[in-house]
Structure formats: structure tokens, C-alpha cells
Amino acid sequence: MSAKAAIEARLRKIGRPEDSIFKNNEPLIMQWDESLKELSKSIERYYLDNRQTKEEYAEKLEILKEIEKYVTKNIFNKKVCLLLSGPSSNSILQIHQWKFDVKAVVPFGSSASGLGMKGGDLDMTICLHPGFSPKNKKIKLRTNMILEEILEDIDSGRMLPHREFEDMEHRFRGRIPIVTGIVDDIDLDISISMTEGVSAQYLTCKYIDAYAKYDHRFILLAVFAKAWQKSMKTDRNERFFKKIFPNSCTIVLMVIFFMKRYKLLPPNINKKHAEHLGIDRATWARVRQGENGSFGIPNEDVSKWKESNYCDVSIGTLFMLYLDFYSEIVDFSTQKLDIENGILKEKEASRRTAEIVIVDVVDKHNTAESVVYSRMLQHYMERAKSVIMKTDRKQLLHILMNSPIKDISEYSEKEFKELRERRLLPKRRGRRY
């Protein structure tokens, strides 16, 4: 089934827009595109008004290069002392010295791809050699000791003394420890990579740019999906919010999967373009040169795919279908998202405890593990879809982007009981959520 046929079939189940000016037999894609044309314009305008400028990105890269120069000359120019535990828990801590080479310091995350927006973070990772197996239990300890030394040099003023730092801290308990804070009004996250090759986060940026090459609507949809989700967060509900909504990385993967399911993006590009997206392409020399874009996926290949698969559907209609897909079609309790192939698979019994399971091409870690209440996520996506379908078009964007969720403490006993009865929240003693 083509992308157009698949979308048309789903829209038939959703129904015609209430304000349709067309006859019943007209294609529903055309009817919904017309109905949501103002929403589409708003999404496109939001992206154009808020996307990261070349000057902003250049400023971030300048900070990155200064940090790279400092750590290379002042921290990794000598052996680094690392405390490692002995063979038993009762043994005395041992001091080991390691000589690391800085292979590259690379940006990753939204700012390093087409998803970069104004005021976005500078996420950077220091790639060190020799690498260690990801299963090595001492990697996190070593990483935290190195980050502690980096933070000490920042706090002492030895690192980048001409720049202003605020709220710098070492977050050592996370899955990926970081030094985080603000430098010259730019949010900064520094992490360490000790893998043999370039970090998975860096390669992810290349995949994002590759998908954007196939369909720019991917960027528009991912950016707006993030903005819509962020609009429901407040200082009061932040803790509850994080248990419901996925992180930024997961939103991007969900958009990729959704577009693959509707054949708007090709599956298996990592296999088809292994020479452009594979780890072999990411040599240290090429990474250090700061190669941008999608590692050169041939324009001819992209054009051929578009000729056979491109579907002319508006970004407003796609956003509604995105909400519909995850609130009505996907069963998070029994299914997992296979990003590489763009197919839903049955969850293994061992992963049933995770609310949402995503299997990524690059990073094998489940990025959606922070989501605790997937049914609440689907509830709010269904609510947003209903707003799009039923709200007067002049008020649509305002209502859609100004409807923050309640904190769990703000629900009445009656509302709280109803959430449990509808299985939006699990049954637990009291209000321990």
C-alpha cells in the first residue's frame, strides 16, 4: 500500500473534518489539508522563527573548540589517576593511572542536526582512547572521576577564564554522567565517551540529517511535537510530567517510526547506505574535520525514492495523524517500536516492565525508559487530537499550545479514582505517584 493510500485509509476511519467545504467523495487528504491549512502555516512559521541560526551554532562550536583545546593540553596531556575498587568490597581502593588520547570532541543532540532551535543546549562528548567494552562496570566510575576534574578546572577559573559560567554541577548518578551548567547564556552538557569508535550520539545526528534529506516534513513534525509536549509542562507538574512524556530523543524516534509506518520515510537506510551512515564512515579524521550533514547520501538515490513514495500531505494533517497513531493504533503494553524496519513487534516477556520499548538502530539502550504512565501519554495525545478535530480554527493553535496538564496533587479524589478506573494510572496505595 502506498503512503497516499495508507493515509487516505486511516482518514476514512477518522472521518471528514467538521468544516469541510468539499463533497463527500473528495479525497480526505485534500479535505483535512484544507481544514488544517492555518495549523500547517503556524507549524512552518514556528520552525522558521525559532530554528537555530548559523551564527548561534558557530558560537556553540567556538565554545566546544576551546574546551577541546583546554582538556587536551591540560587534563589529558598526562596520565589520569583513577580510583578503582579492589577485588572485594572490603578491599582498599586502588589508584590506577591511565593515559587517554582525545580522539575528538564532538557536538550531538538537536543543535548538531537539522533539529537545532534557538536557545538549544550545546551537548558535547569527549571521545577518549583507549576504549572499553560497554559492559565494563568501571566505565562509569572512570567517567565520573574525569568529569570531576573537568568541573574542578571550571570552578577554579583555569578553564575558559574569559567566559561566564553559572550553575555548574556534576550529575554523576545518571545512566550517562555529565557536567552541566550555563556558559555565556548557553546551556552546556559535557559527557565522556570511552567506546572504540565515535559515540552513538554523534552518529544519531547523521541519521537525523539523512531522514531530513528524504523528507523535510520530518524536521517540522519533530520540532512541533516537541513544542506541543513542552507546552504542557509547568514548574508545578514537572515531576509528574516526566513520568508521562518521553524525552526529546524519544520524540524524534517516535516521529521517525510514525513516518516509516506511513511510508513517508524509507526503512533500513542504515543497510542501504551503510557506506554513508555506518561506523566505518565515521573515521576519527573525518569526525575531527567536523563533517556536516548526512555523510553524503547520494541525491540521486533520494530523488528516486521520492518519485515512487512521496505523498503530498500537509504538516497539520500529519501532526493529527501522529497523535492518532500513538493514541489509537499502538499498544504500548504489548508492542515495541523497531525503528530500523519501521514495524511493530511483540514485546518480549523480559521487557514487559518497561512502559514503552524502542529499539533504535544506533543506540541499543531503550530511550523511553523514563515513561512510567504510557496510558496517560496516550490520553493527552487523544485530547490534543480531539482539539484539532473539533475546535474552531481561529482558536485551535491557542488551545492546543496552552493546555498544561494537572499535577497529580491537583486531582480531586473523584478525578483520581476515575483515572484509576480508566487504567490511566495503576492502582497503588495512597497517592504515591
UniProtKB/TrEMBL annotation:
Top-level taxon of the source organism: Eukaryota
GO BP, sorted A to Z: RNA 3'-end processing
Gene Ontology molecular function terms on file: RNA uridylyltransferase activity
Domain Poly(A) RNA polymerase mitochondrial-like central palm residue range list: 39-207
InterPro entries (alphabetical): MTPAP-like_central, NT_sf
One Pfam family recorded for the sequence: MTPAP-like_central
Protein name from the UniProt record: Polynucleotide adenylyltransferase
Organism (species): Caenorhabditis tropicalis
